[in-house]
Amino acid sequence: MRRLSIALAAALLCGCAAYAPPQAWEKQYLARPEMQFDYDRLDAKNVQHVYVSKEGAGGGYGVGGGGCGCN
Hints:
The chain is mainly alpha-helical and about 70 residues long.
Protein backbone atom coordinates (compact mmCIF):
# COMPACT_ATOMS: atom_id res chain seq x y z
CA MET A 1 0.00 0.00 0.00
CA ARG A 2 2.87 2.35 0.83
CA ARG A 3 4.60 1.72 -2.51
CA LEU A 4 1.36 2.36 -4.35
CA SER A 5 0.86 5.71 -2.59
CA ILE A 6 4.46 6.74 -3.31
CA ALA A 7 4.07 5.79 -6.98
CA LEU A 8 0.80 7.72 -7.18
CA ALA A 9 2.37 10.80 -5.57
CA ALA A 10 5.33 10.61 -7.97
CA ALA A 11 2.99 10.31 -10.96
CA LEU A 12 1.01 13.36 -9.82
CA LEU A 13 4.17 15.41 -9.32
CA CYS A 14 5.50 14.44 -12.74
CA GLY A 15 2.24 15.62 -14.28
CA CYS A 16 2.79 19.08 -12.79
CA ALA A 17 6.24 19.35 -14.39
CA ALA A 18 4.77 19.42 -17.90
CA TYR A 19 3.27 22.90 -17.45
CA ALA A 20 3.92 25.23 -20.37
CA PRO A 21 3.29 28.98 -20.16
CA PRO A 22 0.55 30.34 -22.43
CA GLN A 23 1.51 31.09 -25.99
CA ALA A 24 1.22 34.61 -27.42
CA TRP A 25 -2.08 33.85 -29.20
CA GLU A 26 -3.56 32.42 -25.99
CA LYS A 27 -2.95 35.57 -23.96
CA GLN A 28 -5.94 37.29 -25.54
CA TYR A 29 -8.17 35.17 -23.30
CA LEU A 30 -6.34 36.36 -20.19
CA ALA A 31 -7.16 40.00 -21.03
CA ARG A 32 -10.93 39.44 -21.01
CA PRO A 33 -12.93 41.28 -18.32
CA GLU A 34 -14.17 38.05 -16.76
CA MET A 35 -10.56 37.01 -16.10
CA GLN A 36 -9.86 40.11 -13.96
CA PHE A 37 -9.89 40.03 -10.17
CA ASP A 38 -12.43 42.86 -10.04
CA TYR A 39 -14.79 41.48 -12.66
CA ASP A 40 -17.84 43.09 -11.05
CA ARG A 41 -16.88 46.73 -10.61
CA LEU A 42 -19.89 47.51 -8.41
CA ASP A 43 -19.03 44.66 -6.06
CA ALA A 44 -15.37 45.73 -5.96
CA LYS A 45 -16.40 49.28 -5.09
CA ASN A 46 -18.66 47.96 -2.33
CA VAL A 47 -15.85 45.81 -0.89
CA GLN A 48 -13.50 48.79 -0.99
CA HIS A 49 -16.10 50.95 0.80
CA VAL A 50 -16.50 48.37 3.56
CA TYR A 51 -12.72 48.07 3.91
CA VAL A 52 -12.27 51.84 4.19
CA SER A 53 -15.11 52.05 6.70
CA LYS A 54 -13.64 49.33 8.91
CA GLU A 55 -10.02 50.43 8.70
CA GLY A 56 -10.59 54.16 8.99
CA ALA A 57 -8.11 54.73 6.19
CA GLY A 58 -9.25 56.35 2.96
CA GLY A 59 -7.55 56.25 -0.42
CA GLY A 60 -4.51 54.35 -1.55
CA TYR A 61 -6.40 51.13 -2.10
CA GLY A 62 -3.92 48.28 -2.30
CA VAL A 63 -1.01 50.23 -0.81
CA GLY A 64 0.46 49.54 2.61
CA GLY A 65 -0.27 51.81 5.51
CA GLY A 66 -3.01 52.42 7.98
CA GLY A 67 -5.39 55.03 9.31
CA CYS A 68 -3.08 55.88 12.20
CA GLY A 69 -0.43 57.46 9.95
CA CYS A 70 2.12 54.68 10.38
CA ASN A 71 3.49 52.91 7.34
